[in-house]
């Protein structure tokens, strides 16, 4: 066998071993990577819920969505948080039409019907205007924490309780409507969503 053929065969062998090793490594580490990605997704998704308020894995068991959908928004998923055996909250995924496109929110509601918090998980609003709904420094969504269904769910300019996002009236009204409708939906289906008699 000539040196040229021998060198080529050696290179092919080394390349084949490198590819096989890489594929085996990827296969071996893939479950760990997938699990880490799922945990990151869960942390981001459930960031609206204080960690000390639940000890289950809410995202592992989506709830059936009972009844008709709200008028202006759409509830696309719901998950129950529990602490021990007691339900503590329901996290809903809501989609509402904003100024430039759909806005997706996670809305956490406590077992007694109080809005724990809301976060944006997807939006296409105008940069510097409606897109600031998810700006943590501005924290516009913070004004809705601890509010209940019997609050006045409208902008102050519409005789409601809430400040609008400057320059983004349509976005502000859409997000307010989505949160109010999530509270109404929770109130209407409280027993089914919590999996137990209503907590007053």
Sequence-ordered SSE layout with sheet pairings:
Layout: H1 3-45, E1 73-83, E2 86-97, E3 102-110, E4 115-122, H2 169-188, H3 190-194
Overview of this structure, please?
This protein folds into two domains: 1-45; 52-194, no CATH class. The termini are far apart. A four-stranded antiparallel β-sheet has the order 1-2-3-4. The chain has three helices and four strands; from the N terminus they run αββββαα. The protein has 200 residues and is of the alpha+beta class.
**Alpha-carbon Rg, integer:** 24 Å
Main sheet makeup: 4 strands, antiparallel
Q: Low-confidence spans: pLDDT under 50, at least 5 residues?
A: none
What would the principal axes of the Cα set say about the shape? elongated
Instruction: List the secondary-structure elements in sequence, H or E.
Output: HEEEEHH
Short note summarizing the structure:
The chain is of the alpha+beta class and 200 residues long.
